[in-house]
Amino acid sequence: MARSLTLSLLLVSSSLLLSPASSSGEDAADELALVSFKSYLLSGDGGSPSSSLSSWNASGHHCSWPGVVCNRRSNRVVALRLPSSNLSGLISPFLGNLSFLRELYLGGNRLSGEIPPELGRLRRLQIGAAMKNLVYLYLGKNNLTGAIPRSLATLPRIKHLFLDENTLSGMIPPDLGNLTTLERLNLYGNKLLSGDIPPSLGQLLNLREIDLGLNGLTGAIPASIWNISTLTVFSVQFNMLSGTIPPDVFNTLPHLTEILMGNNQFHGNIPASLANASDLSLIQLNNNFLSGVVPGEIGRLRNLSHLILFSNLVGTEQPNDWGFITALTNCSQLIDLDLTDNKLRGALPVQFDLDPTKSQEAFLKILAISLAYK
């Protein structure tokens, strides 16, 4: 799952054409919003603007400024493209006045401070315009602080919301469950985010990817989350979550390809229903308190490439502990099997003899096996 996305707001649009003209009326309001954007950068770092903004001045129409794209007929700003432009400082709330904006790329910069709640409000300051078409909001990999604004939950068409790898704090707003068009939610790596996962996120029935990893989340995973049948990636690794994994939960997740729940406090058995998520390629459940046997049904996962179960309590110290190994030989794509630091006992099965002359069921494609016990 990609985490390289940086501070960007992305909206796909057609007809992004540039045309110089004199500023008047509503396009003059766009120019004022751009000037404010530049001024917030200056006040944010206390120095000179980046050279990429040096020509943002009255000597030319704002539609000719580097990084600014205007609609040919209306001269309204439809895109602002300033990735990796050495920008620092704060995000101006007046960006919300760019009511025709379809793309805002600010990736690879050093923007900091809080996320302006104005980015999520339906009404935009003095011009009262609505950014109803905002679809992709990327604010990842910056130094943003404070709480996640509840106003972000008012974006009616948002599909991607990426706030990953910042220093955001507080709880996940339950209001995010109102974003019924949301397909990807990434809050990874905000270590100060705390509290429970809101059950309201289970209302996001179009969600395909959710990454809540590397935070300070606690409590159990809400039952409503397991009912999002569109999920392909589910990650809550590196938190303090607890509880059990319901035995039949994967019956409702037919499209799941990756599940990352490692480094938490989950206990109980590994569900045999995993086999019903037939597209699974990555199962990562390490560093929990899971126990019992590894279900042989996992051998039905023909796309499984990584099975990571180290540092659990898996095993019964009985001879049938290794019964799942024969089933795993059906997983022809398996390259990484880690069972380190569990309670498995008994002689190693013949399948672990990687000499194909000695075993017809050897894991011929596997690149890494770890069975150590501390």
Automatic annotation (TrEMBL):
Cite the Pfam families for this sequence: LRR_14, LRRNT_2
Protein name in the entry:
Uncharacterized protein
Q: Where in the cell is it found?
A: Membrane
Which domain of life does this protein belong to?
A: Eukaryota
Q: Which UniProt keywords apply?
A: Glycoprotein, Leucine-rich repeat, Membrane, Repeat, Signal, Transmembrane, Transmembrane helix
Q: Name the principal localization, coarsely classed.
A: membrane
Signal peptide positions on this chain: 1-25
The record lists the membrane-crossing segments as none
Specify the protein's topology with respect to the membrane: Single-pass membrane protein
Q: Where is the Leucine-rich repeat-containing N-terminal plant-type domain?
A: 29-71
Q: Which Gene3D superfamilies match?
A: Ribonuclease Inhibitor
